[in-house]
Design brief:
157 residues; alpha+beta
Amino acid sequence: MMIDFTISSGQLMLIWSFAGAICCLPFFTKNIWQRFFTVPIIFIAIWLSFYTNHEFIGRPMFDRPPEQFVYEHHAVVYEQGDRFIILWAIKDGINKLFKFPYTEENEEALDQAKRNAERSGVPQMGEIVKEDQDKRSRNNEFTLKTYRFPFQKMMPK
């Protein structure tokens, strides 16, 4: 089991809240040297937020994909001896990358979606198959199913 640590927007808000609180420090201090202490802290908070955004942007989320999505592309990657699937999916018009543990069933479903999309040019839909609460759900595993994009949604009346 691998834990993927990424900085979230909530953590960025905490960094900026800390910097904002430090900015207010000169209003409550009487010593002049304490007022000059705030400038480096503000610069450090700005640098941390830029660094965090640079590391955060473009990385896949270590999470399962949404219940229904439009398939764009996928790849199987090896990290520290473990296999993962990285899925590029669209949900509500937003492109997202998802990274989740490899299973043979999911790779086969995504390979089929890739072949169908290349052959027909029709976008492929994907969804998570509903399963009973068993060993798979406790391990955060799931099964994907893919199918052609519904014609009614491609060509609305």
